[in-house]
Amino acid sequence: MIELIRTNDLVLIGFAESLLTGADIPVLVADNHISVMEGMIGAFPRRLLVPEDHARQARRLLVEAGLAHELRDDPRS
Fold this sequence. Notes:
This protein is an alpha+beta fold and 77 residues long. The chain has a three-stranded antiparallel beta sheet, with helices on one face. The two termini are 15 Å apart.
């Protein structure tokens, strides 16, 4: 799995997840359930992950949606 976004912004994570799901790209929001421990104060970032074989397509989609500044560096480059 490749991490594309790490953020405390739940709206951003939801938007990115929706975009990727709508394009049939498998997506996992890691650390989503940490809110039980933190009480929804937003102290812990959530991570948006996609399978490595979908990473290039997912990055392109997120860039086209104006989220290039939110993307993590590509570890494969």
